[in-house]
Task: inverse folding
């Protein structure tokens, strides 16, 4: 199972979350500005492990 397959070198998301993100990015493409996508890999919530606490500490300063 893949969250984002490619067809002809272009993204082809296979799940609702991926389709939603892809649609949002295509919308950003229509703007007359540069943009970047930041997608932290962790899921935030009680008892979270991994890099999310470190990321939150960086954001808080």
Result:
């Amino acid at each position: 199972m893949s969250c984002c397959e490619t067809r002809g070198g272009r993204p082809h998301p296979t799940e609702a979350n991926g389709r939603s993100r892809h649609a949002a990015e295509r919308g950003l493409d229509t703007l007359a500005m540069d943009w970047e996508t930041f997608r932290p890999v962790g899921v935030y919530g009680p008892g979270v492990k991994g890099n999310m606490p470190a990321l939150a500490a960086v954001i808080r300063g």
